[in-house]
Amino acid sequence: MFKAISSPYLVSFKSDFKISEARTTPEDEPPNKNALKKQLKRRVGDLAKLQEKLYAADKHAVLLVFQAMDAAGKDSTIRAVMSGVNPAGCQVFSFKRPSSNELDHDFLWRSATRLPERGRIGVFNRSYYEEVLAVRVHPEYIDHQKLPDPAKGEDLWKQRLESIRDHELHLARNGTVILKFWLNVSLEEQRERFLSRLDEPEKHWKFEAADLDERDHWDKYMRAYEAALNATSTLHAPWYAIPADNKAFMRQAVADIIVRSLDSLDLKFPDLSDSEKSRFGAMRDRLNAPN
Asked: Is 90 exceeded by the pLDDT of residue 214?
């Protein structure tokens, strides 16, 4: 079963993670933007090679979970990091407001139906964690979930976090590599990015007034994130709290963790048996025979 690789941004398994101590910028001054782009390009190339082996070996699936506040850079990070991966071996899903059909199932159902197959990389842009983040900040959403006898207050979140831990353990035991990234953007940086969406015409489409409403709940979201990360960062399904104020650094850091994690699996192309190889000569003769 996969085990988390080390990183300065790995969320402790001791449930002692504090958002107030988590950095939104790297501890050391990162290389300049061009150098970071070159590092990212190399890692994207490494990931493409590893994904080819992952697909051929057909033993592991990879699930990448991205969670963050609005404007932290989820979309652009996914796009940048996965840019070199064969589309046949990768699938991306975004989870927004659940449909009526999804509300007729348990809260894990809609994401479970979109899990990656063996040999493929699945990317969740937001995920089942919204059920202990957005729903925790807005408990009135529970009223729409048709629960027969919902738990109240802290008991509900405790139960849901327990269900998530059990779910991820089951996936890991069956060959899914789970890597979860919380893109940690600061309140001030979010403000600057929102302003740029208002100031630059090509970014107008990104802005929604509802984003400002959610910003008003910043402290509640931070408490919900802290509780979720502490309860669900495990050796087999780790969380990484990535500084997100510098987008170039964030993308390179995410790519580096993914590549090193896949590299730790020691992926190899399947080796054919001697009997299968012995047939190559006959096959070659057939292909070279005149029509």
From this structure: yes
